Amino acid sequence: MAIDIPTPLCRVACVLRTRLLSCVLCPLGSLSTPTDGGTPPTATDSSRTLRRASRPVLSRPLTAPAGLDQSAARRWPPFPPVTPLVPGRPQGPCQDREFPPHLLTEASVDSFTSHENRHQSPPEQAERAEPAAQSARAAHRRRRRPALRLGAAVGAGVLLAAGLVGAASAVGAGADTSESPAPAPTAVPAHTLTGYWHNFDNGSTILKLGEVSPQYDIIAVSFASSTATPGQIDFELDPVLGYGSEQEFRDDIAAKQAEGVAVVLSVGGAEDQVTVNDDASANAFAESALGLIDEFGFDGIDIDLEHGINATYMSQAMEAIHAGVGDDLVYTMAPQTLDMQNTTSEYFQLALNTKDFLTAVHTQYYNSGSMLGCDGQVYSAGTVDFLTALACIQLEGGLDASQVGLGVPATPNAAGSGYVDPQVVNDALDCLALGTNCGSFVPDQTYPGLRGAMTWSVNWDAHAGNAWSDTVGPHVDGLP
Prior knowledge:
Number of strands: 11
CATH architecture of one domain: Alpha-Beta Barrel
Number of helices: 15
Strand content: 5-15%
Radius of gyration: 22 Å
Distance between the termini: 58 Å
Largest sheet: 8 strands, parallel, barrel
Strand order of the largest sheet: 1-2-4-5-6-7-10-11
Shape: globular
Helix content: 25-40%
CATH superfamily of one domain: Glycosidases
Order of helices and strands: HHHHHHHEEEHEHEHEHEEEHEHEHH
């Protein structure tokens, strides 16, 4: 008797490279991969406001060339080789200029601090990053097993195969497979205001998700963290937030989505190191991310890995997540300025590898030393030129304007350096989108499709009476 495996499960199994499973269990013609050009069904939310119009649907009509053996074809398209950044000589748009030695001092490199620790005092940072405390938290973290998660041994394909066979047997036996209707996916508008939400207390304003300013179009829940399994991530609510249950948190997510706001899960941050550097860890990342998306109802994933990434395997993981969620996935990232100085850096490679379904790159234009702009000139942080000249590198380096956003701190206390007044942010948006209100740097062309702006964080914004979002939000809405 033939076993009919549901097509979505076949598609995810294929992406996760469970080859034996996909070849034996999936009926001919039902196997769909991210390169087959298929577009998952979408749904619209009639309650969305005109301000949050649906974004275009992206497709990936890539096919492997003839002559590849089966193994190579399964890994098509190949990822481009990554050349390490060479200190002292920038590459890509700045390859013809020497990097000024004073910009590569130890103090300058140390200035590239990350989201969560940049506003804490050294004792607070040491206390929060203490390794033993992290190990204890990981050891006691409650493991979740939502109904739609794939098997834990996804790398080997053993438990995944068993789980799919079990599901198929249940179907064949006439088991009840009806499910409650999935909520309509949250579309994001052409221009977005994004903010990070604290799942911790750091001295700013503690907020429940429902209390976040309505100016934000995308909220990044900070942060999912690593487990003892390489690549695997998990998420737990901090009791300090005052949620009585996880269901209350899920209800807040659903309420925001009903308002047209996308809620994504941010991975990493300052204190945690998620390592994705081989097939097994890439599979573990994708499997656990898909599980958390399903369990909490997140709209997607934000990558904020600040301790180094492997572009090849992180791209592989994101391809698998995209295959599992479809083109409704909201996928953002927040590299630091040094990560986006040239197209050969790992973060830039990740953005280019996944640009067919990437929503936005919000580079952190703060806590940074002076950097080169796309014109090869040196610009100091905290200025309109720093924002525009560095964003130009991405705009000219292969990303679409709709995938480039400006990341800035909401208040002076939110970052160690690089704060700019909200009006300066608006000027930078105008300069790039319209060619007006520029500083000394004027781009060669305008980018009216510019994505918008991001801030660390909605909590620091609330601490200052939402002055940042009330100033920048309406301006983002008014971009062409």
